[in-house]
Amino acid sequence: MPGGGTSINTLPKISLHDHLDGGLRPQTIIELAEAIGLDLPTTDALALGEWFETQADSGSLVEYLKTFDVTTAVMQTTEGLIRVAREFVEDLAADGVIYGEVRWAPEQHLTRGLTLDEVVDAVQEGIENGIDHVDEQGHSIQIGQIITAMRHADRSLEIAELALRHRQDGVVGFDIAGAEAGFPASNHKAAFDLLAREYFPVTVHAGEADGLDSIRSALFDGRALRLGHGVRIAADVNIEREDDDNTFVTLGPIAQWVRDREIPLELSPSSNLQTGAIAAWGDDVLDHPFDLLYQLGFKVTVNTDNRLMSNTSLSQELALLTDAFGYELEDLEKFQLNAAAAAFLPLEDREELIAAITAGFADA
């Protein structure tokens, strides 16, 4: 590990891109499924976890997303949502996360009669229960909800209004997610116009399963302050090698804009491999453009996306990158500082996070 044996797990970390329905504990799925009579591929927790990882490792975002049919099925009751949210917070805290943003799509949790406001309230109750439990154990964590609209549906304005109704009760941002290709941010103009008028922060899934046009739409139609994944911005980076000693890099207009405006990239290495997001560059973590983007000065952040589907944690993602690219402790600190600065929080709160990260890494 970097820092002469420092455990990455104990370092203070920031999690910006982590889906609620992608972070369930397998045993919880089994118990919630039994309560509602839902059949599962297996009722062994270890085997179920392996099933999710295998199914998700498809090379296709569309196939990857099918695993969520199982997790969302057990998140249709108040009790289920509270439990999943509480455990989500506890698992982040156990991994050393001091601030996390949990994103999820309320419209996917209405099949058993709950309303949009009721599901948001249930998740917030679970989050607060988790924070209290973590505090009792002598740890501290802050959590904000990012309310997500499904980009292939037609409810984004309604979901934006929902997010705004709960902005004083735990909701810190808005997102669109789901199948990316063919569903640009421009399809949701009314929602993004409303959010802009209300000065409400937006991140948009873009540059994961579609290319530069999707990123452009996220930036200018969605007014995205961050890019969810955004890994395909690397397609706008041109590398020319004259010989072994001379390499020239030029940025296209979109990449130039993203770098110069310091728009954070919510990169998720393991997930990007599973969904084929980096297929243009290879199929191994060494092929991931993460290091290229980092060396060029992009505001890269490290995320898990879906801890269950990728069988991962934020610490594990950082370890993968460290092993691949030889990062040192100061590099890992930089990734956390980038994330803290990008958090959907007031400036004073972000400054406190930055101070906590700096102090934590200084003690490592």
Automatic annotation (TrEMBL):
- EC no. given is 3.5.4.4
One family from Pfam that matches here is A_deaminase
Q: Which GO molecular-function terms appear in the entry?
A: adenosine deaminase activity; metal ion binding
Report the source organism: Cryobacterium frigoriphilum
- A single GO BP: hypoxanthine salvage
| Major enzyme class | hydrolase
The record's Gene Ontology cellular component field reads: cytosol
Protein name per its UniProtKB record: adenosine deaminase
Which ranges carry the Adenosine deaminase domain?
Answer: 12-357
The protein's matches in InterPro entries, at most eight in alphabetical order, are given as: A_deaminase_dom (IPR001365), Ado/ade_deaminase (IPR006330), Metal_Hydrolase (IPR032466)
Query: What PANTHER family does the record tag this protein with?
Result: ADENOSINE DEAMINASE
Q: Is the Zinc keyword given for this protein?
A: yes
* Superkingdom of origin: Bacteria
**Protein family according to the UniProt entry:** Belongs to the metallo-dependent hydrolases superfamily. Adenosine and AMP deaminases family.
Which cofactor(s) does the record list?
Zn(2+)
Keywords of the record: Hydrolase, Metal-binding, Nucleotide metabolism, Zinc
